Amino acid sequence: MFLLHEYDIFWAFLIISSVIPILAFIISGVLAPINEGPEKLSSYESGIEPMGDAWLQFRIRYYMFALVFVVFDVETVFLYPWAMSFDVLGVSVFIEALIFVLILIVGSVYAWRKGALEWS
After folding, report:
1. Does the structure show a pLDDT above 80 at 9?
2. Is residue 11 part of a domain?
């Protein structure tokens, strides 16, 4: 039989984790100063007068470079726990990690051939 009281901790956690961000937004909206002046409405608040239009087009190459960086950064996040417990996990996990690394190598070779790693 399904008993609802077994999930009391779950519901308490769900309610608390929903209320805290809502309260943070409400409190910051009430306490935040509202000073809209010419500096605040300007494109940049660095103290330097903006020159030209604020809408500049960037080359897609910068975004591709950042995307490749994020992919390989995430790779290290996934491989670190595996490397810390390598002696406990066994051969099957080693093969899975090897397949994961091979897929990433294929992706990096593809990005290299497409020119996504060139910064010019």
Report:
1. yes
2. yes
Q: Which amino acid is at 3?
A: L
Q: Find the distance separating the first CA and the last CA of the chain, reported in whole Å.
A: 66
For residue 96, tell me if it sits in a domain.
Answer: yes
Whether the predicted pLDDT of 1 surpasses 60:
no
Nearest to 82 by CA among 66, 98, 71, 68: 98
Compute the distance between CA of residue 72 and CA of residue 61 in angstroms, rounded to an integer.
17
Average pLDDT, the chain: 81
Whether 52 maps to a domain, the answer reads: yes
Contact 89, 82 (CB under 8 A): yes
Flag whether the pTM goes above 0.85: no
pLDDT tops 90 at residue 26: yes
Output the six-digit token pair for 100: 């994961």
Residue 119 lies in a domain: no
Distance CA 49, CA 41 (A): 12
**In which domain, by residue range, is 56 found?**
3-112
Q: How many domains does the chain have?
A: 1
